[in-house]
Amino acid sequence: MIKPEAQIHIKNLRLRTYIGFNESEKQNKQDVVINAWIHYPAEQAFDTDDVDNAVNYRTICKEMIAHTENNRFLLLEKMTADLLELCMTSTHVTFAKIEVAKPHALRFADSVSLTLSATRDS
Length: 122
What we know:
One of its GO terms (cellular component) is cytosol. One of its GO terms (molecular function) is dihydroneopterin triphosphate 2'-epimerase activity. By secondary structure, the chain is α+β, with helices and mostly antiparallel strands. The chain has one domain (5-102): 2-Layer Sandwich (GTP Cyclohydrolase I, domain 2). The chain has four helices and five strands. The protein has helices at 23-27, 43-48, 57-69, 76-87, and strands at residues 5-19, 30-41, 72-73, 95-103, 111-119. A five-stranded mixed sheet has the order 3-1-2-4-5. Helix 3 (57-69) runs antiparallel to helix 4 (76-87). The two termini are 21 Å apart.
């Protein structure tokens, strides 16, 4: 019997927020690009076709948008950790990984990004 693990990927969520500690960063919103990977056991979801047995990626995405747009962050580490915590809220989630990128944060680079991940202990 197969026991697949679902892998949700919220890809290239583009938002604007206050991120950074330089004066110009504190005064002006900047673009951020968020990628999230969320894993959970999918057996109950596909056996029952019941939304209560699945991870609601729309809800997670809305929470990520609200948190990002309504807060200020000095560090990518803080913002990324907050978003990771949001992804791990559902008890169905066994693993999550978040990448937050700041486009054009460094001269000559497309972006700077930070990635954090977490695994739920059984």
